[in-house]
Amino acid sequence: MFFFLVNIPGNAKWAQNGVTIAGGNGRGDDTDQLSSPFGLFVDDDQTVVITDFSNGRIMQWKNGDTTNGQVVAGGKGKGKRLRQLEAPTDVLIDKETDSLIICDRNNRRVVRWSRLSDTTQDEILLDNMKCWGLAMDDQRYLYVSYIGKHEVRRYQLGKKNYTLVAGGNGKGNGLNQLNEPHYLFVDRQQNVYVSDVCNHRVMKWNKGATEGIVVAGGQGYGNALTQLSLPEGIFVDKLDTLYVADSSNNRVMRWAQGAKQGTVVAGGNGEGAGANQFQYLRGLSFDRHGNLYVADMSNNRVQRFSIE
């Protein structure tokens, strides 16, 4: 899957003013609006798929069409029926089946929606779990963060049994624990990165490890370059450089492999609605060219920052 191959130079910089590529027209449920965007996924052709949390739907914005999005899942009111979503938090595209895999959080399930036809049967992949984040590796194993148990699980698609890959030792701040694991990234070696939100850190769990490594933050809540405050979306490039949506600091941070502190690559200009500002971040991703996409939750928009 292409996001493993994003090659961002070590000295890269991004435009400091973002461009709104989805939403930005106030909070609402029209097709040009979003209401608390959470997780997002950028496809090969720069199509962006967004979990529109408060509207209970998944929106798709095609590259170049910043006026209106398309509802591609949900949007049929709150409820537990198969065609409904309630507070979705993350989404990914499974290219092999051309379908969306969605964490339908408040319905406590992970569901699959076909992108091919509105009449194709959708299905529940996993149920009775309070999920948040999703990832898929290049062998099509599905990774799910289970916030109810403070752990991350790996599933073979279509199977209910799982392998524990991070956490699972109760809520806490030990190296073998997590406290509200939200978003995930899985690299080519099946190492799992987790935004450990309430511990204000990002953890890396090497494949088969029984405890994680702190790769960003972990110095308490704060806005120093050594700190994160409620980190959310994460992404790792080909050089193993980590990018973090540092939600309560309203900035995107970049942490080189082994670094003790990060650098600010976008935002960090206080809370606000300016082109160089955010108001509580959620999902974060890149396209194959290295452009940065951020779900700016309380501004009800998705911003793109072009690589320079």
From TrEMBL:
The keyword Repeat applies. PROSITE patterns: NHL. Keywords: Glycoprotein, Repeat, Signal. InterPro entries: 6-blade_b-propeller_TolB-like, NHL_repeat, SGL. Residues 92-306 form the SMP-30/Gluconolactonase/LRE-like region domain. GO terms for cellular component: extracellular region. NHL repeats lie at residues 171-208, 272-308. It comes from the Eukaryota. CDD domains: NHL. PANTHER family: PEPTIDYL-GLYCINE ALPHA-AMIDATING MONOOXYGENASE, SMP-30_GLUCONOLACTONASE_LRE-LIKE REGION DOMAIN-CONTAINING PROTEIN. This is SMP-30/Gluconolactonase/LRE-like region domain-containing protein. It comes from Rotaria socialis.
